[in-house]
């Protein structure tokens, strides 16, 4: 006795349906009513087909889910299999290879940029202009610190005609006479 397969559900044959563009809108009232009824009937038919397709899709998804359970396939297992499939593809391998070479090129570029900048800073720091500027900044900085802290800056000893200034110990008041 030959085994018989379970009867497969029948689906509407959508390939033979009329695919003509919609007709132009009629000009008279009776033609308009007839045209609207025709289009309404067509809409009802299409919505019925959509409902049928949804039911078929739901049934197929349920059947696929039951088969996965019978085979012991879990969502995590399916995901792992998909990832393995992607990682073994040529496109993935080529992408990884390209990214590795881009990483090496970028690292090399940043390394040479860093050493180039370091060398330029060293050259700049040793230039006479930078040294002159550095000395001026140090002089101004030590003068400000001396005035703020009240200790005299290391200056050459005062000559007999010069009177040494007393260190500043407090803030001047608004009424004080200040030299300008």
Task: Summarize the structure in words.
The protein is mainly α. The protein contains 4 helices and no strands. The protein has helices at residues 29-71, 75-87, 90-125, 128-149. It starts with 28 loop residues before the first helix and ends in a 31-residue tail after the last helix. 0% of the residues are buried.
List the helices and strands and how they pair.
Blueprint: H1 29-71, H2 75-87, H3 90-125, H4 128-149
Output the number of helix runs: 4
Measured on Cα atoms, how large is the radius of gyration? 45 Å
Estimate what percentage of residues fall within beta strands.
under 5%
Averaging pLDDT over every residue, what do you get? 78
Largest sheet: none
Number of strands: 0
Percent range for helical residues? 55-70%
Summing up helix and strand content along with how strands pair, one would put the structural category as mainly alpha
Spell the H/E element sequence: HHHH
First-residue to last-residue Cα separation: 123 Å
Which overall shape is indicated by the principal axes computed on the Cα atoms?
elongated
Contiguous runs where pLDDT drops below 50 for at least 5 residues? 1-5
